[in-house]
Structure formats: C-alpha cells, structure tokens
C-alpha cells in the first residue's frame, strides 16, 4: 500500500471515528444526560497528560544513484503497514472551558516498530544484481498542538520535529561488482505534521485517533568504491490511544 493511500485510509478512519463524537456534541447542546449533568460545567482540557497508543506505520525509502555509476535509477522501496506501539506525554490549555474554544499545547511521543523491507533487483544476467534491506525502528516526535474543543470532543492539528532510527544495507550480488555494499542506516532529524480527534469519557480519561506524516531529512551515503547515493524517506503513522489527564 503506497503512503498516500495509507494516509487516506487513516484519514477516513478518523472521520468515521469522529462522527459519533460530533453527533454527541450536536445533541448535547440541547439536552444533557443524567450521567454528564454533574460535571458538564467543570470539564476542561487544560492539564498535563500521558498515555499509550498502538497503530500501524508505513515507510517509503528512495535510493537514488546520483552518479549513475551502478543501477542508474531511483529504487523506491515501500513497506506494507506494520504494527507500532508507543506513548505520549504533553500539556494542553483550553482558552475557555465554558464554551467551544481553542486548545493549544505541546507533546512528546515515541513509537517503536520493526517495519522491514527486503528485495532483490536484477539477475545474474543483468547489468547488476542487488539485495536491499532496511528497517524502521524508532520514531520520536516533538510537536506543538492546536485545535478546537466543544465539550468533551477535541479536534486538533500538530506540527514539529521528528527523529527516526533507520537501519539497512544494499549489497551487490554480482560476481564482478561495481561495489560490494553501502549502508542506508541513519538516525535522522526531520519534520512531522499530523492531526486527529480525541473524546473524553471522564474528567481524566480520553481516547484518540492520530495520524502523522513524517519526513526525515535526506542524506548521502557512499559505497566502498566511492560512488554516492542519495537516501530520502517518508513515513505515515496512524495510532489509537488512551490518555490520562492529571489534576
């Protein structure tokens, strides 16, 4: 599944998840249930929070032969969505808890996965024969968040920096190689944008769905013959999680 298709799938899932919550807001403006009545006036999104999440991540790596010395092309390598698990901590402030209003804050999150890719290119009778493998291990995000809250439902956007841990190698299997191998391993800084929806069941417990598009900075690697290759990556990560608000 390509990253754009994966992101679209996650966006549709978020829309379906948010529909019941938004319907609850619409009807809650005119009628409150007995269970909600005691604390409707005191609920706020303001406070520190922490939580856990699970989800899926898709990773695309592009390897470009910038000197056209070996395979003279860009190898696009896309992993199928793989499981990820992680946590998030942050702080939010709601501008006016008594009515629909803005919410802003900061969040740090870390997710861990083993999104692996492995493929052989060419053949023994071709110009080249390559074996390429890579793996996405960790994704860390530091983001500022902003959104709008209506009662117990929060719609939000997030933007900030990413740090990713990617490992892997590309090896020439030809008996008369242009090169032996080169590494695509990198712990790279980058950017991340995302968004989602969160619904609070109680004053302290809430559930959310979040989607992030992560773009690590591109980098250059060299093989043992001195040829250069440019590596660029893009990551789409979707997760569902629970948050606990302190205070």
Topology:
Layout (H helix, E strand, L loop, with lengths): L2 H26 L18 E19 L8 E5 L3 E13 L6 E22 L6 E22 L2 E20 L8 E3 L2 E15 L4 E12 L2 E4 L5 E18 L2
Antiparallel strand pairs: 1-2, 1-3, 1-11, 3-4, 4-5, 5-6, 6-7, 6-8, 8-9, 9-11, 10-11
Helix-residue proportion: 10-25%
Number of strands: 11
Gap from first CA to last CA: 42 Å
Coarse structural class: mainly beta
Write the element-wise H/E pattern from the N-terminal end onward.
HEEEEEEEEEEE
Per DSSP, what share of the residues sits in E-state strands of 2 or more residues?
over 45%
CATH class: Mainly Beta
Number of helices: 1
CATH architecture: Beta Barrel
Rg from alpha-carbon coordinates: 22 Å
Morphology: elongated
Described by strand count, sense and barrel closure, the largest sheet is:
8 strands, antiparallel, barrel
Q: What is the residue-mean pLDDT, rounded to a whole number? A: 84
What can you tell me about this protein's structure?
This protein has 247 residues and is mainly β. The chain has one domain (3-245): Porin (Beta Barrel). It has one helix at residues 3-28; strands at 47-65, 74-78, 82-94, 101-122, 129-150, 153-172, 181-183, 186-200, 205-216, 219-222, 228-245. An 8-stranded antiparallel barrel has the order 1-3-4-5-6-8-9-11. The longest helix has 26 residues, at 3-28. The chain starts with a helix and ends with a strand. Residues 14-40 have low confidence and may be disordered.
């Amino acid at each position: 599944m390509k990253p754009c298709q994966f992101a679209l799938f996650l966006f549709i899932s978020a829309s379906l998840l948010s529909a019941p919550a938004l319907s609850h807001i619409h009807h809650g403006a005119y009628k409150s249930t007995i269970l909600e009545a005691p604390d409707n006036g005191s609920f706020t999104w303001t406070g520190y929070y922490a939580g856990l999440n699970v989800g899926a991540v898709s990773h695309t790596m592009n390897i470009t032969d910038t000197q056209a010395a070996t395979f003279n092309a860009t190898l696009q390598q896309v992993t199928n969505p793989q499981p990820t698990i992680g946590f998030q901590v942050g702080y939010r402030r709601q501008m006016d808890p008594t009515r629909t209003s803005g919410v802003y804050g900061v969040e740090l999150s870390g997710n861990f996965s083993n999104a692996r890719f492995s493929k052989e290119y060419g053949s023994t009778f071709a110009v080249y024969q390559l074996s390429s493998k890579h793996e996405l291990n960790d994704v860390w995000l530091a983001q500022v968040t902003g959104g709008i809250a209506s009662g117990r439902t929060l719609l939000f956007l997030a933007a900030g920096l990413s740090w990713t841990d990617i490992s892997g190698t590309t090896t020439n299997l030809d008996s008369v190689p242009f090169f032996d191998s080169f590494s695509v391993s990198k712990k790279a800084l980058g950017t991340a944008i995302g968004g989602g929806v969160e619904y609070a069941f109680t004053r302290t417990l809430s559930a959310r769905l979040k989607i992030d598009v992560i773009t690590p900075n591109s980098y250059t690697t060299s093989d043992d013959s001195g040829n250069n290759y440019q590596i660029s990556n893009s990551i789409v990560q979707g997760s569902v999680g629970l948050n606990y608000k302190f205070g």
